[in-house]
Design a protein that fits this description.
OB fold (Dihydrolipoamide Acetyltransferase, E2P), single chain, 183 residues
Length: 183
């Protein structure tokens, strides 16, 4: 008795239809999730080297024109905005990111108060060790306190006060003031 076996090519039309249907119906493999910190950014190569949380070995993640990069507050960013130390949440398929949520690393600035804006929404600091003046924006939720933890207001800053500022893109989140003694 001869068993009838379909020719290998006879299976291909069904397989091709299945693949075609999956592609046209928007079927895509599920995205994997990765969280970690930026180790480095290579904008020309469209690549981020990420150190996953709790791991020592870094992984490469690529981006393309369809990758959405934004802050946790929803502000759109581009690849070159990412800096070493930024925290990331990444949705990716096979190392190609579809969405990246960035929790920017707070930058530190130390210096001396040069001036406070009349509208009390910013002030200028001369950075320690340089002659560079930096304008720092202050939001209602910015914490301002002296080195002994006494809360103060922006209007209380005086020219010459020493300040240590935690900020993201020159928007202060915390300001510690070493008040200049009255002479």
């Amino acid at each position: 008795m001869n068993a009838h076996r379909p020719a290998p090519l006879a299976i291909l039309p069904g397989l091709a239809l299945t693949v075609l249907f999956a592609a046209s119906s928007g079927f895509a493999p599920p995205a994997e999730e990765l969280s970690g910190f930026v180790k480095s950014v290579d904008a020309p190569a469209k690549k981020i080297v990420v150190t996953p949380t709790g791991k020592e070995k870094s992984v490469d993640v690529t981006v393309d024109a369809n990758t959405v990069i934004e802050t946790s507050a929803g502000k759109s960013l581009v690849l070159k905005d990412l800096k070493a130390g930024d925290g990331l949440g990444i949705a990716h398929v096979g190392g190609l990111a579809s969405k990246i949520i960035v929790n920017a690393k707070l930058s530190e600035l130390t210096g001396h108060v040069k001036s406070v804006a009349a509208n009390l929404k910013s002030f200028v600091v001369t950075e320690t060790g340089t002659t560079t003046d930096v304008t720092v924006v202050v939001k209602p939720d910015t914490t301002i306190a002296t080195t002994d933890a006494k809360k103060i207001e922006l209007k209380e800053l005086k020219k010459g006060d020493g300040v240590g500022i935690s900020h993201v893109n020159s928007v202060a989140s915390k300001i510690v003031v070493n008040v200049k003694s009255v002479e």
